[in-house]
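Reviewer 2 asked us to include a model.

Predict the structure of this chain.
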Amino acid sequence: MADNKLTKSTGEHWVCTVLSSLGWAAALTRDGVERTDILATRSDNSAVISVQVKATRSHAKPNWVLGVKSLQPARMPHEWYVLVSLPMTAWQAPASYVVPRDHVAAGFWIAYQDWLTEPGIPAGKRNTSLAAAHTFAPAFAGYHERWDLLDQATTTAPVLLPQTYRRLATDSRVGLPPEHPWRNNLPRW
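Predicted model (structure tokens):
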């Protein structure tokens, strides 16, 4: 069984490595900085981003526990998540999903609420709390290796969630998280 702190650290260092190779000066923040594991600036100082890294060592089905804090809306237009799936062997590259914070909040909530309230499932059968819920890679497949998105504000990044999630976002059974910016103006995707 993998050490969770080592998994987290490996994911953060991987993201710093990729950012550096793409021309970002990346720096890890100290433990305890809320919502930010990495701060990075373009080498020409043209942009600054804040990155929250979630890493997992998953076999066939990468998944992450994001927690309730991931549902908080972005405070600035350059808050990103990078979801990292570390390989089981050291000679393979990790898979990365580069996702704007508000897209993570929507995707995580929609997947969880759809699973929790799925019609035909007996009441009480599904009782995993939001804090312990997992989100799986297919929810964020459109963001796989989309490092190019970092060159724009998260507010202008295309929504690459599954098409079915847009319908579920307007469904009263599922919807969007409280205070999510899309509740008033759902973007196209």
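The first strand starts at residue 24 and ends at 28. The chain has a mean pLDDT of 92. We have added this to the supplementary material.
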